[in-house]
Design a protein that fits this description.
Rossmann fold; 7-stranded mixed beta sheet; about 290 residues; homotetramer; alpha/beta
C-alpha cells in the first residue's frame, strides 16, 4: 500500500548507529508524521537503505527548505537521498516495443485505469504493426525502424524524442533491440526491461524455444533495470508458472505473455511508487 | 532474516505523530543500535505496530532498567509493548497431536536441526500410535486419551502438564479435539493450530473430502491462533496448491500433508522470532 | 496443446470394459488417426469420460455419416457424446459486464489476437461506462440497464439478443446481476462466470472486503459454469496470490484484477477447445 | 491417482495411425480392462508415448504369456515397451547423501508412511554424521568416504553394494560427489538427483550463494535423471518460491530445503509409479 498524497524520502548510506532515529527525529522536528517506514541493512556490503512516507499535512518544509535543512544530517551520515513531493507532476513514461503488443497494451490499460501513477506521452517502435492500436487509444506513436548501418542514428532519434517529451522512465515492453552503452549509462536505473525467462536461465534470444528444448517444468519472466551487460541488470520482479510435456513452444509463448504482462507492470508500479533501490547488481524492493 | 543475538522490541499503540522517532531516539540515547525496524499502521482501525531489533552490544539497559526507563514514553503514547532479550532461555513448545504424525515429526526435525529456536519438552496425544517415534527421538510423550465424560478431566491434565514443563507455546499439530473456551482464553495468542484447508473455506471437519466433493481446483492449509470460535482465529500463514480431476481424496490428503507441514512450521518460526502480532481477527506478520 | 484442424470427440458413459478400445477401433476402422486421447474414470460415481482429437485428413466420415455409423456403438455403451468438426463456424461468444472493464477488455484482446478461437458479436452491459472502449474496438455494445421492476424484461431482452446473434457461449465478465433460474437452465454449461474469491470462501458480495476483514493471507479467483445456486456451479479454473497485512482493500482489488483476467480467460479457452466436461458439481478439464 | 493393484504398460514408438486402438484392442481381447490411459505425441520428434493401467482382475495373461502374445504387435509398430505387474516385489531404493540430511530423512519418512511404494535397503554416505538417525530408523547405513586418490575405489564399492542389495533406483539426496560416466551409463534413467536451483540457472556449486549475489527474486529446486553432463539430465520436477531482499543466504538455504524435499520426493514417487519417460533431454510425466 502506498498512502496517496504523502512525501516519499529514500535514503542510503553505510550502516551506522542512530541513523533511523536521526532521520525520523529530523522529520518530526519539522512537523512531519511518518506513516510508513521501511529499512534494510544489507548483510553483505553493510549498506543501509530506508524509505519513509511522510504526511504532507503538517510538514513545514518545502523542496528547497528541505534540502537546506537536511544538508547537515546528510553530510554527517554521508547519506545519498532523494525525495518526491506529492504535488510534483506525474512521471512521464515512454514505452518502447517491437512487434509483440501484449505488454504495451497492458501498460496502456493500467495507465488509463489509474493503476499506474504516470503519463504516457509517447510509444516508440521499430515496427509499424502496433500503430493502429496505440493511436486508437489516443496516444502518440513514433515508428523508428532499425535498418542496417542506421542503428546509431535511430538511437539518437530515440534519445531526442525522450528529451522532447521530457521522459522520466523508459519501459522496454518486448523491445527486441540492444541499446548502446552510452544510452544505458545516461538512463541508469531509469530503463526497465522485461525478459521472457526466469533469469539467469535462458539469457539472450528465443528463451521459450530453449526452455522447450531443455525440457524445463517451469517458465518465468523477469523485469530488470537495463545495464550494459545484456540481461544482467538488477532484477526488480520475477514470476514463474508450471508447464508440462503437453505444452509446445506456442503454449509457452501464450502462457508466458500473461506472466510478462504482470511482471513488467508490477516493476513499473514499484518504480513509480519509489519503492525500488538498485544497489550494485541487486535491488531492494520496499513493498 | 532475524539477526542472531539481538533484542526484539514490539510496540503497538493508536497511531500518533512522532512515535517512530520517539522510540528509536529512546533506544539510541541508551546506546542501542537499531538493525531492523518494521512498522505498520492499520488503515482500518488506526492502530500502529512496530518491531525493532536492537544490537545487544552497546545497549546500556538490562531488563529491569529498560522497564523503568521506558515507562514514561510508554505512558505518553499509551503503548503496549513486549521485549525479548537474547540471553533469555529458549521458548518451550509443547506439541499436541492425534493420529497423524506428519506435522509432529516435521516440528521435531526442525527443532533438532536448529531451524526453530525452541525446546520441545513434551508431546501430548490423545492416541498412542506416535509414542514410538517420539520417544525414539528422545522426547517425552504423554498419552492422554479423550474418553466420553472425561474430556474435562483430560484437558485439566493437559493444562497441568503445560504448567509442569513451563510451556510458552502450544502447537496443535493435527490435534483433532476442540479445546474449551477457558483453556483458549488462558493461552490467548499462544496456541497455534493447523487447519487443512484455505480458511475460511471448508471450516470444520473433513475438509479434503469436502474439497473433493465441491470440485475445487486448489487446496490449501492455514495456520492460526486458536480462539473460542473454531477455525476463526487470526490467520498467521496460508498456502495453496493446484489440483485437478485426477486427484482423488487420497491424493488431496497426500499433497495436503506437505502444505500443512510447511505452513505450520512457518507459523511457529514466525511466532518464535516475535514477528507475529494478533490484532483483532487479523495478524501483522513482520517478515 | 490443441492440434489445429482436428476433429474433437467427447464421450461419457458408465465405466465399462473395453470402451477405449471400442471407440478408438471405430475411429481407426473409418480411416481416422487419433493424435490426442485423454480419459478419466471418476472413482466416486464410476463415470467414464474420454476426449479424442482425430486428424481430419483421412477420416472417411462427415457429420451425418458419423452419427449414423456411431449409433450402434453409442447404444451398446449408453454413450453420451458430442463431436466438433474443424470446418465448423467459430463459436460466438457474448460477454456481459457491469462497470468494471478489466475482464471484458482482456477477452476482447485475446479474441483479437487469436488466442481464443471465437467471435465476439456482442457485449451487453447494465451500465454505459464501457461503451466507448467496446465500440472503439469495432464491437457491438448494448446497454441494458436493470431498473426496479424491470429485471425480468431486461433479461428477456438479453435472451432475445443472444438468439439474434446466434450465441454459443455467454461469459459473465464481472456482471453483477443474478440471472433467473430459467435463463440458467436454458443455457446450462454455456454460461461461464468469474467470481473474485477462491470459492467456496467468500461466496456472495464484496469478497475482497470480507477477505481483508478476515485477515486471510491469500486471495483468489474462480471461474465456473453458472447454475441456479449462486457461486455453487462446477468450478473450471482457480488461482490464488499471496497477500500480507500491508495490502489494504484497494490493493486486494488491484491484485485481484490480474487473477480474475487470467482465470476467466483460461476457462473460456478450455471451454472453446472442448476440454471441459461438467459432471454434477465438478468438472473434468482435459488439459 | 494411481489405481492400486493394476498392471502398468508403457509404450513408445514413432507416431503411427491406429497405435492406440491396436494396443487397447489387444488388451481387451485378452480380457483386460483399461482403467487409466495417457498418451502423448511429441510434436518435435514425432515420438508417441502411452501409459496404460489395466485391471489385474480378468486379464488372462501373465508375464511370459504377455511377452509372447505381444511380440507381433510390438514388431509391427516397432514398439519399445515395459510392463509392471502388481504382484512384483516392491522396488528397492538406495539413497545416497552427504552431510545434509533433510532430503534423506524426508524419503525415510515417506517410505515408512507408505507414501512411496518402495523398500529402502541401504543408505550410503561419504560422511558419517547421519549414521545415527538412519540406523535409529532401523536402516542400514554405509559410510564410504571419498578420499584423494580413492574416488574410483569408493565408487566401485558403491556399485558393489547396489548389486548386493539388488537396487532398482538410486536417489542422490544432496550427494555432493560427481559420479563417473561409466556408473551413470550403467544406471541410465535409474539415478535421480536433486539440484538446489531452478535449472538451467545456477548449474554447478553453491547455487544459493550465487542466487543471492545475483539478486534473483525466486529460488527453485530441480529433480532430474543423472546423465554424464552434470546438471543437464532430463528434468522430472521443478518448483520455485518467491524471496526478497530481506532473505540472506541462510534464509535461502532454509527455505530451499522445503522445496528440495518436496521436489525430490515427488520425482521419486512419479518414477516408482512408472509415470516418467525420459526421451532425449526431456521427460514425459504422465500425472
Amino acid at each position: 500500500m502506498t498512502t496517496p498524497g504523502t512525501i516519499r524520502l529514500l535514503v542510503t548510506c553505510d550502516d551506522q548507529r542512530g541513523i533511523i532515529a536521526a532521520v525520523t527525529t529530523f522529520i518530526g522536528s519539522h512537523g512531519g508524521n511518518v506513516v510508513e517506514a521501511d529499512q534494510h541493512t544489507d548483510a553483505v556490503d553493510g549498506r543501509f537503505a530506508m524509505r519513509l512516507e511522510i504526511e504532507r499535512d503538517g510538514f513545514e518544509l518545502g523542496r528547497d527548505a528541505f534540502a537546506a535543512a537536511f544538508v547537515d544530517l546528510a553530510e554527517r551520515f554521508a547519506l545519498r537521498w532523494r525525495i518526491r513531493w506529492p504535488q510534483e507532476r506525474r512521471r512521464r513514461v515512454v514505452v518502447m516495443a517491437s512487434r509483440e503488443g501484449h505488454c504495451l497494451r497492458d501498460l496502456i490499460w493500467r495507465i488509463a485505469e489509474g493503476e499506474l501513477e504516470a503519463d504516457l506521452p509517447l510509444v516508440i517502435s521499430n515496427h509499424a504493426n502496433l500503430r493502429g492500436s496505440v493511436e486508437g487509444a489516443g496516444l502518440r506513436y513514433e515508428h523508428l525502424p532499425v535498418t542496417p548501418g542506421e542503428k546509431t542514428a535511430q538511437e539518437r532519434r530515440v534519445r531526442e524524442l525522450l528529451n522532447e517529451v521530457d521522459a522520466d522512465l523508459v519501459v522496454l515492453a518486448r523491445y527486441m533491440q540492444v541499446l548502446s552503452g552510452d544510452f544505458v549509462a545516461a538512463w541508469r536505473d531509469r530503463i526497465i526491461n522485461i525478459h521472457h525467462s526466469f533469469l539467469p536461465a535462458f539469457q539472450g534470444a528465443r528463451p521459450y524455444h530453449r526452455a522447450h528444448e531443455r525440457g524445463v517444468k517451469i517458465i518465468g519472466a523477469t523485469s530488470h533495470y537495463v545495464t550494459e551487460d545484456l540481461d544482467e541488470g538488477p532484477i526488480i520482479t520475477q514470476a514463474t508458472l508450471p508447464i508440462d510435456h503437453r505444452d509446445d513452444v506456442r503454449d509457452l509463448i501464450r502462457k508466458g505473455r500473461d506472466l510478462e504482462r504482470v511482471v513488467l507492470a508490477e516493476a513499473v508500479r514499484l518504480h513509480l511508487e519509489d519503492k525500488v533501490l538498485a544497489i550494485g547488481r541487486r535491488t531492494i524492493v520496499f513493498d
